Amino acid sequence: MAVSGYELGRARAASDPDQVAPTPPPIAARGPRDSFAPAVASAAPAVVHVKVTSVARSAFPGFGGPDAVRQGTGSGFIIEPDGLVLTNNHVVENAKEITVTLKDGRELPAQVKGRDPKTDLAVIKLDGAGPFPVATLGDSDALSIGDWVIAIGNPFGLDNTVTAGIVSAKGRAIGAGPYDEFIQTDAPINPGNSGGPLLDENGAVVGINTAIFSRSGGSIGIGFAVPINMAKQLVPQLQKDGHVTRGWLGVTLQKLTPDLAETMKVEPGRGALVSAVTPDSPAAHAGVAPGDVIVRWNGTAIDEHASLPSLVASTPIGKTVEVEALRDGARRTFSIMVAKLEDESVAEAESETPSRGRWGLGLQDLSPDDRKQLGLERSTGVGVANVAPGSPADEAGVEPGDVVLEVNRHAVASSQAVRAEVGKTPSGQPLLLLLRGQDGSNRFVALKA
Hints:
Strand content: 25-35%
Strand order of the largest sheet: 1-2-3-6-5-4
CATH class of the largest domain: Mainly Beta
Oligomer: single chain
Number of helices: 11
């Protein structure tokens, strides 16, 4: 059995009075923590309970089954005195009616102002006279692993439940979307906490509680929150436009593992490996190729591949940036003009693009990990993120979670490619899709305009 130096020293001291046991190394103290009550008291009045009524499409559309009315619940917090509330997209998605309960007991109707499925954020507006109590927004970048954090929400419908824990990790990618940079915490988070605030010790919001890892449905000490600094960047667009406009590069990225780094003769542990380049994209026009390792974007070093999508997304449309990459061990510099990433979500705005307005399809590009899990080829398929109720896609039985393999008998590997094929479909003609269902089987469906 291995024995530490400290334990060995204690053993010697017990048998030899001339031996003195070494002093154990000091542990950095965080100072006394008497109570989280002041932090909770300052933040709790702005935390709200969100109750949602939604209509779900029948599971048997071909047999004329009725739509189902569903009740959902979540949390949120007020960020503007006029009643603007920040919550999760999945809490209010497909909402037909929203009722918000304040800490003082008032119940007010609310309307969705904007949603962003890619980050699972949404803003809703209370229908009532203000001013309302407002949460203080903190700085999620200032968090350190091991810092205390506090979660407030409505788990299982229990209003204003407070739990505490520490920051377990930062920048965590869990496969929820292309912009995963979650704060991981062991503060207990349960169903109904979604959309509620994660606070620092001073009661300032540092995150929006969004997801948990659990085999039972309850908290096992692994929860995830969207950093508040990410939300700060998106809220103005959601409030004004109802959706988020992002920059687009046109590459598929993957993690640069030590084995890949050795093979490609680059330094391990930093950079984003380009596994595919979308034709006719900004990256393709600039000369970026599969196998390039992007190490710097517009002057910012890329230490983790997951950080690059957020940097690209936040770059103004039309701006030309300098991008440094390694190819076969040699450094190259590209000048790339950032294009607009077409919105692939349903959002609240009525899009006129063929892939949304005409057919009702909300699309999502698949990552290499997604394709691997689905058993797809390296550059095959586009995910169906959502389907507009009553749309041609809805009537044809297309479901969220399906994968589009072909459009009009042409293989597709990106939402951009789907739009291109959809745009070629003559007005009044049906759209033929080859789909891979969630059960792994393929099927053709015809969407009638």
